[in-house]
Amino acid sequence: MNKIVTYKPFGTIHSPVWNNFLEDFFDISLSDNFKKPIADIIEKDKSYGFEIELPGFTEDEIDVRIEKNVLTVKAEKETKEEDKGKDRHLISERVEKYYRSFALPENANEEKVEAKFTNGILALDILKKEKRESKKIEIRK
Hints:
By secondary structure, the protein is mainly β. The chain contains 2 helices and 8 strands; from the N terminus they run βαββββαβββ.
């Protein structure tokens, strides 16, 4: 059975249990004010499917990368100087930064990925590598 888990390269001063509790229960991220987007992951016969919610973003504001079997999705809006003006926000609940990484199974094929973005949902399909049959090696006498 293959598992896909949230990738966390660095530990924090808290225990992993406490850290996961903070991030999952309160939906907070402990790094650079990025929020963790909601994701559904589906294992199919020949691929892994991801559906990640990124409401209010455009394709140009989303960065998707796979490096060393780690899938990283980052979405960030740039605040323009003219948007700041003289007004100040009393409450600002819109998320302008999303970040999430997943450790992929070894059989995920980094070279064969399809991505679509429709109605705020990023859909990724990562094909699985074909299984290789073991090869018997003859020993010469």
